[in-house]
Amino acid sequence: MNRYPVWKYAIIVIALLVGVLYTLPNFFGEAPAVQVSSSKATVKVDAAVMQRVEEALKAANVTPDTLTLEGTSIRARFNTPDEQLQAKDAIQRALVPDANDPAYIVALNLVSRSPNWLTAIGAKPMYLGLDLRGGVHFMLQVDMQAALTKKAESFTGDLRSGLRDKNIRHGGISREGQNIEIRLRDEASLTAARNLIADQYPDLQTTSQPDGSEFRLRASIKPEALRKVQEQALKQNIVTLHNRINELGVAEPVIQQQGLDRIVVQLPGVQDTAKAKDILGRTATLEVRMVDESSEARAAEMGSGPVPFGAEKYLDRSGQAVIVKKQVVLTGENLTDAQPGFDGQTQEPTVNLTLDAKGARIFKDITRENVGKRMAIVLFEKGKGEVVTAPVIRAEISGGRVQISGRMTTMEANDTSLLLRAGSLAAPMEIIEE
């Protein structure tokens, strides 16, 4: 005689059927594939890129089993590894004409052979851990010299402001490597500058020597401060990588220091190597600089003259050259938050930044002193700088809230906000082991 009601047996049978159904993807195995994803926040993978991939494969006489646009990447699945390699070469030629400045990542990958109807109901194969199969391991080298140079550049700007605030006259401030040189006209100015550095910049040590009728004061970062900068750079990069990977939904990452200037990243369960590279490679940092308004700069923007001394040339999103001063007003380190939004008047997508107390104070002073001039927001990715926008300062901006707009799409505003919100890297990194 049956001891239990029929509905209980029905529930057991249904649970077993659902379990078997969602286990099926593990039995279909994997197929070789090529994945295309964006290498920059300003470059999108969409239907137009998919059409270019399709045309490249057709020209190379390679027919994929499937070609799909999944989220922000394109996946082309093939029957054999030979077709996969041939397809990768064809797509690489079509999408990445300049290997030194790639707009897209074209990577070999493995995707499940599960039928589309299984994928449609969310049935996916089980991802094995790094110790079994399918994890991603990277070793990254931190460019410590870049971190030290960045710190020296920051000290240069601070000293320039400090001398101006104390009304100490000087003949110019320049930086050579990690050393800062100040030319002073008399001994009284030399003493005042030396006292200022001793009081307000304990991480700097100074030496002075006569230079004709003037004096030259050289400030350099103390050895113990150099070590501290390197340690902080490594720690900040580790924290930044944690933030970025966590925001992009990678579960249980292992990010740890190895040696004095290396970071090991292990992403268990991530078999999408293109996505892993995209996460680690998109090292966006933000810098606020003033636009050079001189006649020489305008000539350089038009391509009819050299870039003036103390300035650099970057392109905006429309390809127009913008000449900006080398002195950095603000960096991503002064950001506390970055969120996408819309302009209340034009309804254009924007990135809304919130600055810390120091950043808000600097931004207020800069905007008050430069009304009518242009300020450039420069976004750096993989060592390449791009001017997001270069608006004219209409009035003093206080309160620490800044809105960036400039012909951005909603997706670009979202991506830029994510990268900036995740934090800036103290120094650039490169993958040396994969």
Describe this entry's structure for a reader.
With 434 residues, this protein is an alpha+beta fold. The chain has helices at residues 6-23, 47-59, 81-95, 116-120, 144-165, 187-200, 223-247, 273-281, 295-301, 357-369, 410-421; strands at residues 30-38, 66-70, 73-77, 104-112, 136-142, 172-176, 179-184, 204-211, 214-221, 254-258, 262-267, 285-290, 311-316, 321-325, 330-331, 335-342, 349-355, 375-381, 384-389, 401-404, 429-433. The radius of gyration is 27 Å and the shape is elongated. The mean pLDDT is 81. Helix content is 35%, strand content 30%.
- Shape label: elongated
The spatial strand order of the largest sheet comes to: 14-13-19-18-12-15
How would a textbook summarize the main sheet? 6 strands, mixed
Strand percentage, roughly? 25-35%
Structural class: alpha+beta
Averaged pLDDT:
81
Spans of 5+ residues with little confidence (pLDDT < 50)? none
- What Rg is obtained from the alpha carbons, in whole angstroms? 27 Å
How far apart, in Å, are the first and last alpha carbons? 63 Å
Helix content: 25-40%
DSSP, total strands = 21
- Number of DSSP helices? 11
Question: How would you summarize what this structure contains?
Answer:
This protein is an alpha+beta fold and 434 residues long. The chain contains eleven helices and 21 strands. Helices cover 35% and strands 30% of the residues.
